[in-house]
Amino acid sequence: MTAPTPSDGTGPAPADAGTDDLAAEIAAGERTDTGAHRFLARLRERLDSRPWLRLTYKVVVTVVGSTVVLAGIAMLVLPGPGWLAIFLGLGILGTEFAVIQRFNHRLKAMVLRYWHAFRERRAARARRRDAAA
């Protein structure tokens, strides 16, 4: 994640700036007008024209996504980015399974809700500290 910068570019952003940075970054990641999305749409059209190829693709996505999730779970106790791998694996599985995609949307909403609450508590604590000083 990039550090928030003020719009005038004069220096570092204040501590309470960027409350919606996480939401903006998620929205930017969900854009579907990129070249990669167009490529994947063409690939999906070709896959849908051949049922056996579509099934093979779904099996490969399932195996890869499940492996990444299981590796992430293992990395929770072993060295490595466990949560990142779990979320990446869920994202891979969400491309093929609507249930996991809905779960990902709920998880994203929950993360944003907690992120905003955290930022508000942090800003309130900073205001109390500044008032006491």
How would you characterize this protein structure?
The protein has 133 residues and is mostly helical. Helix content is 73%, strand content 0%. Helix 3 runs antiparallel to helix 4 (82-94). The longest helix has 35 residues, at 98-132. The protein is elongated, with a radius of gyration of 20 Å. Residues 1-17 have low confidence and may be disordered.
List keywords for this structure.
elongated, 5 helices, mainly alpha, single chain, 133 residues, disordered N terminus
Compute the separation of the termini in Å.
32 Å
- Helix tally? 5
Question: How much helical structure, as a percent, in the residues?
Answer: over 70%
Class inferred from helices and paired strands? mainly alpha
What is the radius of gyration? Answer: 20 Å
- Beta-strand residue percentage: under 5%
Q: Secondary-structure element order, as H and E?
A: HHHHH
State the shape: elongated
Mean pLDDT: 81
Low-confidence stretches: 1-17
Tell how many strands the DSSP assignment holds. Answer: 0
What characterizes the major β-sheet?
A: none
